[in-house]
Amino acid sequence: MRTDIITIFPQMFDTPMSEAMIGIAREKGALDLHVHDLRDWTHDRHRTTDDEPYGGGPGMVMKPEPLFESVRAVSSQDPVEPHVIFLTPVGETFTQGLAEELATYDRLLFVCGRYEGFDERAYELADRRLSIGDYVLTGGELAAMVVVDAVARLLPGVLGHENSTQDESFTTGLLEYPQYTRPAVFEDMNVPDVLRSGDHGRIAAYRRECALRTTARLRPDLLMNFEVTEHEQSIIDDELGRSPRD
Ligand code: ADE
């Protein structure tokens, strides 16, 4: 997948986007990442990318001209038309489901905002606006890296095991069950016996129960649209201290 990023801080991407799994994804060619400096599309001596807001108010607004020029120029660097994503707190919330959808595109182009936001007209360029959560960052760069990271690990050939993503949190609709490795006893804390029993049926049932209990306790909102059996509902009720339904 080709991925382009337009930012006024291209160096922010250097280390996070070249280490660990993303570095490997790039080496393998699964991720073809290009980071562009928005200031390359300014035409004044100070390479200005922001200006004061019409109507007054605090902060500065990102000017439309360099945004339009850069998105058009970067898009035309490859025959594949990119899916253009603006990172902004005023956007749809990024989820695992969206990561899975974005992983199906051949090309993504991220535009990172700074200051108080983008001139509204720049959104004409966007196929979607994404927020990574209900908090305000100093800019879209970290958000773009979060999205690229979550998408890149889903690309074919990037993760070692074919099914590494199958059981994980959010993919199943539940938080992931707890994992243990050796030693079996650590500072008086035991690995649950069932996981050492070799009985795959019991292990699967135990993990499912743990996932249901953890989700009920920490993220009950995830269960709102989640289909459960009667037995599973009784596990959830038990976890939440509710009496069984009649
Ligand atoms: N820019 C500033 N805050 C952001 C957020 N939460 N998500 C995406 N881009 C942002």
Key terms for this structure?
246 residues, alpha/beta, Alpha/beta knot, 2 domains, five-stranded parallel beta sheet, elongated
SS elements, strand count: 9
Mean pLDDT: 95
How would you name the CATH homologous superfamily of the largest domain?
SPOUT methyltransferase, trefoil knot domain
What would CATH call the class of the largest domain? Alpha Beta
Structural class: alpha/beta
Indicate the overall shape: elongated
Main sheet: strand order: 2-1-6-5-7
The CATH architecture term of the largest domain is 3-Layer(aba) Sandwich
CATH fold field value of the largest domain: Alpha/beta knot
| Alpha plus pi helix count | 6
Percent range of helical residues: 25-40%
The Cα radius of gyration reads: 23 Å
Show unreliable segments.
Answer: none
Instruction: Please describe the biggest sheet, giving its number of strands, its sense, and whether it closes into a barrel.
Output: 5 strands, parallel
For the record, give the distance between the C-alpha atoms at the N and C termini, rounded to a whole number. Answer: 52 Å
Ligand kinds = adenine
Strand content: 15-25%
H and E string: EHEEEHEHEEHEEHH
Number of domains in the coordinates? 2
Description:
By secondary structure, this protein is α/β, with parallel strands linked by helices. Helices cover 28% and strands 17% of the residues. It has 6 helices and 9 strands; from the N terminus they run βαβββαβαββαββαα. A 5-stranded parallel sheet has the order 2-1-6-5-7. α3 links the parallel β5 (83-93) and β6 (107-112). α5 (200-218) crosses α6. It is elongated, with a radius of gyration of 23 Å. The structure holds adenine. Residues 87-89, 113, 131-133, 135-137, 139-140, 143 line the site of adenine. Adenine (ADE) binds next to β5.
